[in-house]
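Ops channel
N.P.: pipeline sanity check, posting one input/output pair.
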């Protein structure tokens, strides 16, 4: 039975892009190791596996709090959102050609939908994953990555992987590095700074007040929209903690000191 891979402006944040003339299609898979294969290789180190938005909104609601067992043995909410993410993940892992062919067809359909509405389609492939899409051939459509098949479409993602240098060569693929304040993540931040420099903005989740200056960069409000490719370069994208992230104590969320706020 066929099912949709892409969610088109079903997210309360991405839909904000319509006021700026964009329609956003997002691919949501099961994050971290839930699918049985780690699709977010640095989630545990960063601490974002605990506060992941996978269970935010409808993804965390289940009748009578029912759960089902994910392939890695973890219990997750039993709802249509999680079941769909599981099906997509298993298709990506076990039927890659079928997955990429369907993704190609859905991007074409989404672009037509956007054009009918007078909007420009943009695509985010890592809605709840962190895959190196620059290394994934769009076979059987192409042996090159999917963004080379659609050079007229802007693709973008957040990533915690610090060395995706190959991704930077694609003009229509924009990355924002996802920051974690967890001490174990510090060496990864150093590597990311060496790899990306000012070419890639940083983004982090804040608990409490947000300073106007962080990590040597001016902060911008990342909750106003999700169109990260439109952000001014060399900025720190500030996101407010949501869902489980509000209770995060792993170090993932940023808790600025009074000094940082006062001197920003």
């Amino acid at each position: 039975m066929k099912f949709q891979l892409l969610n088109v402006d079903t997210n309360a944040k991405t839909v904000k892009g319509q006021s700026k003339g964009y329609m956003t299609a997002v691919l949501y898979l099961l994050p971290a190791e839930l699918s049985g294969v780690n699709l977010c290789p640095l989630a545990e180190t960063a601490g974002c596996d605990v506060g992941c938005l996978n269970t935010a909104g409808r993804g965390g609601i289940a009748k009578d709090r029912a759960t089902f067992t994910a392939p890695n043995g973890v219990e997750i909410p039993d709802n249509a959102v999680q079941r769909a993410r599981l099906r997509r993940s298993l298709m990506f892992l076990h039927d890659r050609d079928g997955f990429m062919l369907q993704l190609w067809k859905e991007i074409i359909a989404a672009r037509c939908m956007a054009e009918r509405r007078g909007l420009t389609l943009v695509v985010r492939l890592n809605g709840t994953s962190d895959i190196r899409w620059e290394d994934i051939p769009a076979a059987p459509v192409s042996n090159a990555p999917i963004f080379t098949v659609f050079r007229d479409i802007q693709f973008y993602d957040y990533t915690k992987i610090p060395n995706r240098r190959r991704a930077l060569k694609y003009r229509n693929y924009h990355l924002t590095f996802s920051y974690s304040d967890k001490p174990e993540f510090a060496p990864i931040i150093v590597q990311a700074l060496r790899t990306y420099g000012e070419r890639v903005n940083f983004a982090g989740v804040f608990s409490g007040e947000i300073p106007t200056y962080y990590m040597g960069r001016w902060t911008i409000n990342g909750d106003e929209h999700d169109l990260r490719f439109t952000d001014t370069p060399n900025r720190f994208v500030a996101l407010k903690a949501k869902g489980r992230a509000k209770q995060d104590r792993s170090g993932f969320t940023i808790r600025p000191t009074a000094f940082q706020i006062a001197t920003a």
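N.P.: looks fine end to end. Residues 96-116 form the longest helix (21 residues).
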